[in-house]
Design goal:
Strand content: under 5%
Structural class: mainly alpha
Order of helices and strands: HHHHHH
Oligomer: single chain
Distance between the termini: 63 Å
């Protein structure tokens, strides 16, 4: 019974990782976010939102693989910390640490980019 459970967990983990690699961290939600028409957004806001989304994608792509996987599973797929730990065969603390570091790296990059935009 324990061997069967271990096999199923490994197969599920590998399947998720393969799926993530194929998608290259591009979610359906992200692609739809830019195409939602709204009467209260002007072209400038639309362009800025697109730039921010592009910057976030660049930041995520620059992260180490563990951080990319954790951020994708948490922020895009909506998995809980415990589910991510089981899927990626990590401790709960490792999941939290990778998520914290990844989010901070993205935040710092966006703040830096925003500073460059404001100087122009």
């Amino acid at each position: 019974m324990a061997k069967c459970r271990g096999y199923c967990m490994t197969a599920t983990r590998n399947s998720c990782l393969d799926r993530m690699r194929k998608k290259k961290l591009l979610s359906v939600q992200e692609s739809k976010a830019l195409h939602i028409s709204s009467t209260d957004k002007d072209p400038y806001e639309h362009m800025m939102n697109k730039e921010i989304l592009t910057q976030i994608r660049k930041c995520v792509d620059a992260l180490p693989e563990n951080q990319q996987q954790v951020i994708h599973l948490r922020e895009i797929e909506g998995f809980s910390y415990n589910e991510i730990a089981a899927l990626l065969d990590m401790s709960l603390e490792q999941v939290k640490t990778n998520l914290f570091r990844g989010r901070n790296a993205i935040k710092k990059s966006i703040i830096k980019e925003e500073g460059l935009w404001n100087k122009r």
